[in-house]
Amino acid sequence: MARRTINVDVLARVEGEGALRLVVDGSVLREAELRIFEPPRFFEAFLRGRSYTEVPDITARICGICPVAYQMSAVHAMEDALGIVISPAVRELRRLLYCGEWIESHVLHMYMLHAPDFLGYDGAVEMAADHPEIVKTGLAIKKVGNAILKLLGGREIHPVNVRVGGFYRVPTKRELGALREDLKRALEASLGTVKLVAGFEFPDCERDYDLVALGDAGEYPFNAGRVVSNKGLSITPPEYDAHFEEYHVKRSNALHSRHVGAGAYLTGPLARYSLNSALLSPLAQQAAREAGLGPTCNNPFRSIVIRAVEVVYALDEALRVIDAYEPPDRPFAEAPLRAGIGYACTEAPRGMLYHRYEIAEDGSILDAKIVPPTSQNLPSIEDDLRSFAPGWLSETNDRLRHLCEQTIRNHDPCISCATHFLKVDVVRV
Amino acid sequence: MSDPPRRLVVGVGNPDRGDDGAGRLVARLLHGRLPADVRIEECLGGAAELIDLLREADHAVLADAMVSGAAPGTIRRLDCASGDVMPRSAGASSHGLGVAQAVGLARALACLPSVCVVYAVEAAAFAPGAPMSPRVAAAAAETARRIAGEFG
Lengths: 429, 152
What we know:
- The complex is a heterodimer of chains A (429) and B (152).
- Chain A has helices spanning 43-47, 55-60, 67-82, 88-119, 124-130, 132-153, 173-177, 180-198, 240-243, 269-276, 282-290, 303-324, 373-388, 397-409, 415-418, and strands at 3-8, 18-25, 28-36, 162-163, 166-167, 212-215, 226-229, 234-235, 244-247, 256-259, 340-348, 351-359, 365-371, 424-428.
- Chain A has 429 residues and is α+β, with helices and mostly antiparallel strands.
- Chain A starts with a strand and ends with a strand.
- Chain A has one domain (3-428): Cytochrome-c3 Hydrogenase, chain B, CATH 1.10.645.10.
- Helices cover 44% and strands 17% of the residues of chain A.
- Chain B is of the alpha/beta class.
- Chain B has one domain: Rossmann fold (3-Layer(aba) Sandwich).
- Helix content of chain B is 30%, strand content 22%.
- Chain B has a five-stranded mixed beta sheet, with helices on both faces.
- In chain B, helix 2 packs across helix 3 (99-108).
- The longest helix of chain B has 18 residues, at 134-151.
- Chain A binds chain B through residues 10, 12-16, 64-65, 108-109, 112-113, 116, 121-126, 128-129, 132, 135-136, 139, 142-143, 146, 156-157, 416, and chain B through 44, 46-49, 51-52, 87, 89-95, 97, 101, 104-105, 108-110.
């Protein structure tokens, strides 16, 4: 059989710029590599010398889709460095803000980027022509996420109301209450989304992943918890650097990450769900059961079902927070400046996001380390391709290319964040 | 008597990326120069946020930067009703579902304004933090003048 090279020069429906090269030698897959050419952005370097107070606003600019995640990991790390203890109300408002971001990000990915793969369309525009109601539903649910961000964050993209210790301004009960009816309608619609995506056809592709997420928090994780895995890891965020390391591969402007002594690992919906499914709200658990999900999931193609369940959860949780809300006496907590190092992991929609900052006595940043979920997931995404693509080699180049792109989109990679992605080449020789 | 048409101007782009800010500059230049009922908005160009704006308008004019290979500063007027703005899904990311996709989606969802025009200004450079090219800034001013004329 001939050698085939399949090049996807610019990967579509992923965040940022990257490419995939597959080299197929007869019936053997020789190469499956993601090349990330999104230029590096050097955020960690230009945080040095800035004040600790600036970090939520600067790091929010890393991503237009998940700015809240960057803000949350940033403020928790700074609070760790300074010994600031946030109020219970601020903690709850941060969960609510994260709910807004999960809703926005997951719905965008499910409806605009991932669903066309399963329904056989090139993209959302083509899908909308045949299924306008599906797209309308997605846009309506997303709008509720936007409304949460606008109210709590000050605006829908790159929110400006988050500060170390809490918020510049906290909402009134009345302001939060005004979101209730829209949230309830979106929650009803989101249950329909779970049914819709559960009906898609999923390739029988499972892998024994090293799944890593926040856990042991007594709640489905956003801002708190230990770093746990399905292989028995249980550490605190300050121990992250001892267990995980970044490394450079020539083909990628994004660093890759590995679990020291174990290799590739996976963060994101599969990990979060498999390690915490029992902590979902009863309604979200029921939706998961009815969608055919067990307590864990190792099929990345089913990540769309988990995202749909997590949207149900985020809407349900948002309503819980709003109904229980009592405004705090002060919108933020403070503590005297001191030199120190702070660590935090929070759960971005795409997976765990680690921040570490060292600050000087005057609060200026001496050193910053940011490890986005996509950097952590890139080796596992390549391993997915190496594991699954050999079963697809008898497919036409177009079909093979599509399946490989879908394999990548399963993880909703944010290359812009990680380079700090796609083009697919299939070479058959 | 029927309601008057809901009229809208949207400047699209990222003002921190050089010439990509051309559409936003057009919107800013139009403040005080349009009839009071014309709503002026700016956005980064995400399809979802654009559709939310379009579905609430009967007459929309969008201003955006373009890369077509024409000379920098070239201004094109595209009539969406005639199909001038064709959506291309290939290459789209959730960051990159832009004006063309928004118009395509709005059409598919039957919420495209009955009058929908895009003014596109050919851009030259998109470097982060860079100022706008003088030729593109001048074209933005000319675009604002033409859009004011559409509502005159």
